[in-house]
Structure formats: structure tokens, C-alpha cells
Amino acid sequence: MHRTFRKTLLGAALVLLSTGALLSAFACSGGASTPATEVGELSGTINEAGSTSVQPLAEKLANAFMQEHPKVTVNISGGGSSAGVKAVAAGTVNIGAASRDIKLTENDIIPIAIARDGVAVAVHPSNPVSELGLEQVAAIYAGAITNWSEVGGNDKEIVVVSREEGSGTRECFEEGVTKPYGKKIKPDALFYDSNGAVRSKVSSESRAIGYLSFGYIEGVKALTLEGVEPTVENCLSGDYPVLRRLYLLVKETPSGAVKEFIDFCRSEEGQQIAEEEGYIPLAK
Amino acid sequence: MGETHLAEGPPSFSDLGGQGAEVVLSIRVARARLRLMRVRARRLQLRYVTDWGWKQLIVLSSISAFLILLLIAVFTVREGLPAFAKVGLWRLLSGTAWDVAESEFGILPMILGSIFVTLGALVMGVPLGVGCAVFLAEVAPRRARDLLRPAIELLVGIPSVVYGLVGMLVLVPLVGKLGGSGDSVLAASIVLSVMVLPTITTISEDSIRAVPQAYREGSLALGATHWQTVWRVVLPAARSGIVASIILGMGRAIGETMAMIMVIGNSIIIPTSPLSPARTLTGTLALELKYAAGLHWNALFATGAVLFVFILVLNSLALIVHRRAVAR
């Protein structure tokens, strides 16, 4: 009896030890790979994670960067702005990405702007409405206007499509459209969790209104707001009312491959890529 | 006589005279036997060690499964604790507003959304699933059963995002013709009812098959029709298995996330009709977790903890029903 007990105890200790070893192995394997040192040709691996609004741009930039520096591997993944902030602070990635400003409650990290992005208000292509005032959009999202006929369209109920709480795109939309008029997005709107999902709903529902990143305008009609068309020129001039910055995030002053990549993103060539992808280049 | 010699040391031919060769032989045999016994004993020890090793391995795997569950539970509750502390359990459970900017975190609409969608799925899925099970177990010819059962089991293997996609592109526009935008409790319930079908059907069929043949024979001998036998005798006898299958299906329905997000609209309101959009507990987590920070993050984990308790209660219920069935 006594011996079996001791054996079991020994076994349990073994189990605990191996579990601990396993866990710590997990914790370590998530660690960032060492950025390359600046000796001769640039090499190494850069891991990036964060905002899905930044993701398409970051992928294009990474591909161009890897062509110039074949020995560098840049891995881009999504996860969302908050995940990007957390991952950088924890050191699990070299670079994070965020489509919103860093909050005071979050970790102190360094945001570096790589592009700007407009948020377009979009409707189904068959919708006769092609221009709205900001106050009208705010009223639609707050639930004060519920029929298209009230804003010059057909006699149809408006299906309001929004993004989930915490989304960088939503934050930008609220700052630029609803908050100035003291309105809030009504809780009985439809909520989707990505630019792509909003686009597919708005492009398939003739009564829908939604908002999405400039990079995603396709198959939907982007509305003219307050008489300003949603174009890159109007964003560059600052006339378009719903604009935001996109950031890469680093924990400390970047060096090596990470620095090179960030410099590349902000370079003439990088900004060119951003513009081709439908984003707004940084102001010079 | 050999004993004394053995005690003094190896025997020699001069001591033993004519009997020497015989004694040496017997000593050799004894030594060989001893060696064999030692080898056997060593093998035996080895067997014990391997046995012990296997046992530890199995213990390790079962403990790690338990540890993982414990880790998830501890992590969820720990991350959710600040929300329980700041918002308060009751306000969290009974609040109807979910407004991050105002730090309002009430998950009642999500709790009700989850419950309504699950009930809707059961209202449609249970008759369908149990009907399928009765057909497979009692009515279908062997060949039809061999074809149907794998087909139904295959439904489990379809990724939920595919269910969601089909629901979004086909079902939602159809439901939209009844009124509203189409993203609704009804659409979500229909998708879910198909997803819980395999769980309900396979477990129910097994429990119907487990009903002793004598019950059916007795009923038929008394003059009951096939239908009467199934309805009055077989189904009541298989009741506990069927109830367990329904509860397991319910667990699957409450936990489903991806497909729900795509067809339910995710509005934070208490649904008032089947055509009204709603939001589920899991949907809230999947939608908001990736962008959440601060108290919002904690509130989402608190939501996860509530969901955890929900599922725990459901699974315990299934276990109790099952135990009772076994006891009977």
C-alpha cells in the first residue's frame, strides 16, 4: 500500500514537472526571433501582428521588402489592434500594428505612422442616394432616421450595418461622424467583425448602409459626405471628414532589420505602395 | 553429502572419487537454473518497470487533460475578475446595455439571445433528429441505413464557417423576404438545427437500438401496430438516451460561434420576434475580443466565465440523466 502510494506520488511529481517544462517551452517558443544585426547583407525574421485594417497594406509592403532583401523573412498576421499592442508589449512579435491611437490604459509602446486611411460610408450600388450630410448619417446610425425616403431615396427601411465595439474603423467613424452630433450607434444595428463582412452585407442588401476602410471599396457605392467625394485627393487635402492614421508599433527604438522595414514603409516607395492599395500616403 | 563440499568451495575429483563427474554435472544444472531464474527475475523487473512507465504515461495524459481544463477555467475567471468586481455580478447578468464608452456591461441581451437561438434550434432540430433516429433504427432497410447514417455523421465534419457561409448567402436573403434584414434569430436557429442534427440522431439511434427486442415483440403480440409500438413502447424506453442526446446537442448549440456571427446580425437587443436580430454570448467574445482593452477585455472574459458555467450545468445535466438511465 505504502509503496504504491509513493510510486503514485513520484508519478504525479513527474507529471507536474513535465507539464511545467511543456508550459515553459510554450512560453519561450512564442518569443520573438532575434532581429538581424547590421553586418553585411540584411538577414533575419520579422514577425508582425495586429490590426486587420493594416494587414493588407503590411502584406504588400512585406513582399516588396523581401524582394529587396531576400534573406529577410517578414511574417504578417492579423488579430486586431489590441492584440497587436499586447503582442508587442509582451515581446512575442517584433512589430505590432494598430489602426487607432494607443490608449492611456494600454502599454507604453512606440507607434510609428505608416499611412493614413479614410473610412467611407457606403450603400448598395442600386441605391439612388449618393450624397449625405454628416448629420444625416449620424441620425441614421442613431436610429432617428429609419427610412430611405427621409433622405431622398426609395420608400424602404434602412438596414444599418456597423462594426463591433473596439474596432479601429468604428472608432474613426464615431469620432468623425456620430460624436460631433452627440449621437451613438443604435444597439439594434447589425454588427459585423471585419471590413470584408461589412462589404459583403452592403453589396448584397439593397437597403443597407455601412462604413468601411478605403482599401475595401469594391462592389459598393461610397457616398459623398458633406459634398466631399471620398477620393485620395480629398483625403490628402484634409477635406474628407473621416480619416485616421495606421501605425506600426515597436517596444523600443528599432534597429537592424526591423528599423530597415519601418524605414521602407515610410519611404517614397512604401508610400507609393500604400497609395496603390487605396490607402492615403502620409502628409509630407 | 554434496552439501559439505559445496560449503567448503568448488569440489575436486580427488575428494569425490568415482562420483565426482555426476556431482559436477548436477552443480552445473543448478547453476544454469539459477542463471535462468535471475534472467527471468530481471525480465520480470523490466516488465514491472515498463508497466509502471505505461501507467505513468496514461496518468500523465489524463492529468494533462484535466490541467488544461483547469488552466482555461482559472485564466478565464482571473481575467474576468476585475469586471465582476467593478461592474458587479448582478449588474453584469441583468444589465441590458452593452456600451463600452460608458463602461456599461450588461450581458442579459446576449444570454437571452443564446437561449432563444438554442431553443429555436431544438424546436426544429429535435423532431427532425429523433425522427431520423427512429427511421434509421426501426424503419429503414439495412441498405438505406448504411447510406444515411454515414451521411448524417458527415455533417459533423463540415466546418462551422461553411454552415455560416451557406446561411449568409442562401438562408439570410430567404428569411429577409419574411421581413426585416434577414439576419435573425430564425436564420440562426435553422442553421443550428442542422448542426445539432448528427449529435441528436446518432445518440438517439443508439439508445433506441439498445431497447430489448422483447419489448417490441410483446407490444406487437398484444396487437399494437408498428407505429404504436414505436411511439408508446420503444421511445419511452429509450427516453433517457434521447434526453441526453438533446442536452448534448444543446451544449453544441450554445457553444457555436462562427456560423452564428455570420447569420444573426449581432445587434445588442433583446430579440422580440424570430425575425429580430440578436447576439449570442460566444458571438460577443469572438467579435470584440481582438480589439478589446482594459475593462472591456475583463468584461468579455467575465462573459466567457458565464458561458463556462452555462456549459458546465448543461453537461452535468446530461451526465445525471445518463447515470440515471444506466442505474435503471
What does this structure look like?
The complex is a heterodimer of chains A (284) and B (328). Chain A is 38% helix and 21% strand. Chain A is α/β, with parallel strands linked by helices. In chain A, the strands form 2 sheets. In chain A, strands 1, 2, 3, 4, 6, 7, 8, 9 and 11 form a 9-stranded mixed beta sheet that branches. About 7% of the residues of chain A have low confidence. Chain B folds into 2 domains: 42 residues, no CATH class; 220 residues, Orthogonal Bundle (MetI-like fold). Chain B has a two-stranded antiparallel sheet with strand order 1-2. Chain B is flat. Chain B starts with a helix and ends with a helix. The N terminus of chain B is likely disordered.
Annotation, overall tally of beta strands of chain B = 2
As for the number of domains of chain B, it is: 2
Measured as a percent range, the helix fraction of chain B is: over 70%
Whole-number radius of gyration of chain B?
33 Å
Shape of chain B: flat
Given helix and strand content, the structural type of chain A is: alpha/beta
**Spatial gap, N to C terminus of chain A:** 80 Å
Largest interface in this structure: A-B, 38 and 42 residues
Q: Identify low-pLDDT runs of chain A.
A: 19-39
- The rounded Rg of chain A comes to 24 Å
How many separate helices of chain B? 14
Helix-strand blueprint:
The complex is a heterodimer of chains A (284) and B (328).
Chain A: H1 2-29, E1 44-50, H2 55-68, E2 72-79, H3 81-90, E3 95-98, E4 110-123, E5 131-132, H4 134-142, E6 159-163, H5 168-178, E7 190-192, H6 195-204, E8 208-213, E9 221-222, E10 224-225, H7 232-236, E11 243-250, H8 256-266, H9 268-276
Parallel strand pairs in A: 1-2, 1-3, 5-10, 6-7, 6-8
Antiparallel strand pairs in A: 3-11, 4-8, 4-9, 4-11
Chain B: H1 2-8, H2 13-16, H3 20-87, H4 89-94, E1 98-99, E2 104-105, H5 108-139, H6 142-157, H7 160-176, H8 185-209, H9 213-221, H10 226-237, H11 239-255, H12 258-264, H13 281-288, H14 295-327
Antiparallel strand pairs in B: 1-2
